[in-house]
Amino acid sequence: MSRWKSEVLTPGLMRGTAAALLAALLVAGCSSAPEIAPADQPLTKQTMMLLGKKGMSVGAPIFVRIFKEESELEVWKQREDGRFYHFKTYPICNWSGDLGPKLQQGDRQAPEGFYRVANYQMNPNSQFHVAFNLGYPNAYDKSLGRTGNFLMVHGKCKSAGCYAMTDALIEEIYGLAREALKSGQKSFDVHAFPFRMTNENMARYKKSKWAGFWRTLKQGYDHFEVNRVPPPVAVCEHRYIVNVSTADGRDPEPGGPCPAFQRPSLQPFVPKPAEQQIASERIEVPGPRTRTAQSISAPEGDEWQPPAIASAANSSGGGTSFTRMFGLGGKGLGFQ
Question: How many domains does the chain have?
Fold first, then answer.
């Protein structure tokens, strides 16, 4: 007799074999399906539900604030009343340098200032997952001869002058920005601050060489805190001038004398009684922060001043060097 036996295919064994074959086919089918790129990932169901709960359209304009010392990035969304409401605060996983603006290529310093991000600055193919370019150097930075490029908010939690998030968090932030730009927002403001610009924090750093620069940034911070709308910002005489516009709508020369400005009037934000909770609610996302208070410092010394404009007092607009120093133009205080 043969020593080999033929295996009998019992009904149970047949069912098991069929199930294994089906599972293998499903895996093969899934592996051949195209993956959705990180930049194209839809917002999660939880994110969409939170937008709905807060009365925010997925395509409504956004506004971003960055705080170095706290290692936090805030996303705000506009509602039907035209004001911006807090959506989420995200932890910044890593950023490099110390408190103070970026000055030159290679200083590994993360920027501070008023920046704008348009669609062309979105980078879906970043080697750091996904990213958007802050737009450094902007008109202000260029007027001071500052150098550097590709200063981003991106993933991978690694920084050489950028603001680095975890991949999951930058994916959501990128998605919120993508949807706003896709829906018609031409560009969104990103205000990068050294810290939350409270009077107490300003007093803590009053000996810093950047105290004067930070007082200007605080004007933008205070304007938003009061009005819940990002202020228009002009650049002239190598300075940021906050909450002003020109009569003809044209931008002044960043390094030239300041023209006469108009100051837009806006009623302070007062939420409706039924919306007090939405207006005051703050949702903070958990996540790693590699920068600690002990690793952050601010250079002290003589207060930095932007270059003087020798022609300011004698320009065609008239005025004094003092009024023009603060962007007040030549007709009285320069506002019409």
Answer: 1
